[in-house]
Design brief:
Distance between the termini: 45 Å
Structural class: alpha+beta
Largest sheet: 7 strands, mixed
Shape: globular
Number of strands: 30
Number of helices: 18
Radius of gyration: 27 Å
Mean pLDDT: 94
């Protein structure tokens, strides 16, 4: 069930890609095929850590039907990839560091032959000690996985003197929080079609969140100019960050160039689990203290993040977590340290929320514990310590100031669900069955959008009148289920007065689109909105100027409208867009290029724009089994104007579903560097049964009068606050604190652990 509280005047519309998705007629990139294509597979390591003594491929090469068997010797360019830190081997040369490491890749006439060829490749290993505990990995006597050691990245931030601050505190809470290795579990696993063209170019049809970044990385690997590589990157059957990094693209590209034929690759679910990215498991230790009135005085945090064998965006995720363990609250004294650690566990990487989920689970847990020590209503405790509208950001950096924090706090405070909490007994409301208890909890966050200071974050787009009269909106973004095409269409209709039939959206093809930056970090909608704001005046002026010449009319008597140029006052259609396109004169085309707004600080990763969000949640706890069921959710989101009501609600609902799994059931378990959880028969994700409770969403659209940054991102924030709210609700229902996710039934037998000073 869904209660729509979105107040946007925008009309509800059928998503342009909706019919194809619900009927199954829409073809994802991994559905593509060519008659003469070959099938590609990758041979991956049997061991999480080993030295490679030899690789023998002769038998595989001699197998009939095999067209290419490649090892590191066949990589013409850089034998490594990674968006920010290219340290992951394309094909390993002397060492493997996890069970997903690639040693060879094969192209054959069929999957069966390719699999047989993989089995014929003989690898001789020298087994090395497995480093599977990030804390042990930091010890001096631990095997070093990289030349610079196992500490991949450090972060620190401090203000005042935390130790002195704690001496002044009346209450102090110390707790250690643990978060799981969550899988993205997208519907479409990694894959694609790789086509060598007759002119020597390579066309890659493969899911990604940033086609231009893929093109750059493949250029380095293939030793081929970027202009000779075309990336088609949309539509995608889900990503959530998991396809932001290269996955099968290096192997499909290498095989296509060596075999001279199209290569089809598509990971099985088990292969996706083995080699794909996961959410960073984190251990977050917090010590937080208050004075006698409940004001926060000192906050000390230690973050240990398991980044797995290679960097990808592990440093950037840690930067984000460091910012968000400080979050939306005021402290006199701060001492935050973090380290991202190399291990032989599975690859960790970018995932919806980008470190914020782990950070906010811990931070909000501290707020609830402190509120209880003070005997204070937990939402009031947050209000007492919340940042004010004129305050700087978590890193003391200038930010785009809004009333979002106060608006979200007030929305949750007055919502019926939170008001119901007061009527419940301290130990939870007992239902008809005495072993069933209920509780209500809430959590709050400010979530940064964009990539942050010091990281290239381009934006922009293009509008053009095509020869057939369609108005083309051209952007370098990808559609992976978030509703980008629908949102862009809605903006064009509302801002330019067009009809849906007048518009053609062109995205996700590096040959024809500008580099609009990555479709990630809750940035795409905001940057499309800003692009259209910048394009509206020059594009409209060109259109009306050309129409005025054709109609021999003054431009101020004309306007853009549905179907064509219309008379301003009467609305009469004067000239169709197709007729305008055929008129003499220069083609109409406008382009804009700019960067995502950043703060005036030198702190790398610090954010300028934030979305504020809170959620209240009711849970039901079975005290016999320890199982938790979410009955009701109320989300308040302050993100500025709602462009696409359906998309807004879908993002918050979808994000909360992912957060439900993060809180209650999802963890890709590993043992000594091997996945125990290998498929969806043992890795459970929320189903419609788990999501059957009422979800209410309140969109807070007001922005300060002079704010010209437009709508904030909401693609991630729906996934951030639900887990700590569930933990708070469990506390009310059971009297037990939750400090480890996902919540195991055994938590009822575990004693709560925290220290107090009174």
């Amino acid at each position: 069930m869904l209660l729509n509280r979105v107040s946007s005047a925008g009309r509800w519309r059928i998503r342009p890609d909706g019919l194809g998705k619900v009927t199954g007629s829409l073809a994802y990139l991994t559905d593509m095929a060519r008659e003469d294509m070959l099938y590609g597979l990758v041979l991956r390591s049997e061991h999480p850590h080993a030295r490679i003594v030899s690789i023998q491929t002769d038998a595989a090469k001699q197998l009939p039907g095999v067209h290419a068997v490649l090892t590191y010797l066949d990589v013409a360019g850089l034998n490594a990839f990674g968006i920010a830190h290219p340290d992951q081997p394309v094909l390993c040369e002397d060492r493997v560091r996890y069970v997903g490491d690639a040693l060879a890749t094969v192209a054959a006439d069929s999957i069966t032959i390719a699999q047989h060829a993989i089995e014929l490749i003989k690898i001789e290993y020298e087994i090395l000690q497995v480093v599977d505990d990030p804390e042990q990995a930091l010890l001096a006597d631990s095997p070093q996985l990289h030349p610079k050691g196992n500490a991949m990245h450090h972060t620190t931030f401090s203000r005042g003197n935390a130790e002195d601050g704690f001496k002044q505190c009346t209450h102090i809470i110390e707790e250690t929080y643990y978060t799981p290795r969550q899988m993205h579990t997208y519907m479409e696993t990694e894959g694609g079609l790789f086509v060598p063209e007759e002119d020597g170019r390579l066309t890659v049809y493969s899911p990604t969140q940033h086609g231009f970044m893929d093109r750059m990385q493949l250029s380095r690997i293939l030793a081929k100019p970027q202009e000779e590589i075309r990336i088609v990157s949309s539509p995608i059957g889900g990503s959530f960050g998991g396809k932001d990094e290269l996955n099968v693209q290096p192997y499909g590209a290498l095989l296509a160039m060596h075999a001279g034929k199209p290569i089809k690759m598509h990971n099985s679910r088990q292969e996706s689990v083995r080699a794909g990215l996961k959410r960073h498991p984190m251990k977050i230790k917090m010590k937080t203290g208050t004075d006698s009135s409940g004001k926060l005085l000192a906050h000390q945090v230690s973050i240990i993040s398991d980044t797995g064998p290679y960097s990808t965006l592990g440093a950037e995720v840690l930067n984000f977590a460091t910012e968000h363990v400080i979050g939306p609250y005021r402290y006199e004294h701060l001492d935050v340290k973090g380290v991202s650690v190399f291990t032989n566990n599975g690859m960790s990487g970018e995932f919806r929320g980008f470190g914020g989920n782990q950070a906010i689970f811990a931070l909000e847990g501290q707020m609830d514990r402190l509120a209880e020590l003070h005997g204070m209503e937990p939402w009031h405790f947050r209000r007492l310590n919340m940042r004010q509208v004129e305050d700087l950001g978590p890193f003391d950096q200038p930010i785009a100031m809004t009333d979002g924090a106060e608006q979200v706090w007030a929305a949750i405070a007055k919502c019926p669900l939170w008001q119901e909490r007061a009527s419940m007994a301290d130990a939870g409301l007992t239902c008809e069955e005495p072993w069933i208890k209920r509780g209500i909890g809430a959590a709050f966050t400010m979530h940064g959008a964009g990539l942050g200071v010091g990281i290239p974050d381009p934006a922009g787009g293009r509008l053009a009148l095509a020869a057939d009269g369609k108005i083309e909106a051209v952007f370098g973004y990808e559609e992976f289920g978030q509703g980008l095409i629908a949102t862009l269409t809605q903006m064009l209709i509302e801002q330019f007065g067009l009809a849906e039939e007048d518009i053609r959206i062109i995205i996700g093809d590096t040959d024809v689109v500008p580099d609009s930056g990555s479709t990630t970090a809750s940035r795409a909608t905001a940057m499309m909105w800003k692009s259209l704001q910048r394009l509206k005046k020059p594009f409209t002026e060109q259109m009306l100027q050309k129409a005025g010449v054709r109609l021999k009319s003054s431009e101020d008597r004309l306007r853009l409208g549905e179907g064509g140029i219309r008379e301003s006052s009467s609305g009469e259609l004067m000239l169709t867009y197709e007729e305008l396109a055929r008129a003499e004169g220069s083609p109409i085309r406008c382009e804009t290029s700019f960067a995502f707004p950043t703060s005036t600080t030198e702190r790398v990763g610090a954010h300028f724009m934030y979305t504020y969000s809170g959620v209240a949640v009711k849970v039901e706890l079975n005290t016999l089994t320890g199982r938790v069921k979410v009955l009701q959710q109320y989300h308040a989101v302050a993100a500025g104007p709602v462009i696409n009501p359906q998309g807004f609600l879908g993002q918050i609902e979808g994000g909360s579903s992912m957060a439900l799994g993060f809180a209650l059931m999802e963890d890709a378990l590993m043992d000594k560097g091997h996945y125990i959880t290998r498929n969806l028969d043992t890795y459970l994700v929320p189903t419609i049964v788990d999501q059957s409770g009422l979800v209410e969403v309140e969109a807070i659209e007001q922005l300060p009068e002079k704010d010209d940054y437009g709508p904030r991102g909401i693609g991630e924030v729906g996934s951030v606050t639900l887990a700590p709210a569930i933990a708070a609700a469990i506390r009310q229902a059971s009297g037990k604190w939750v400090a480890k996710l996902p919540v195991e039934p055994s938590f009822l037998q575990e004693a709560p652990f925290f220290l107090t000073k009174e």
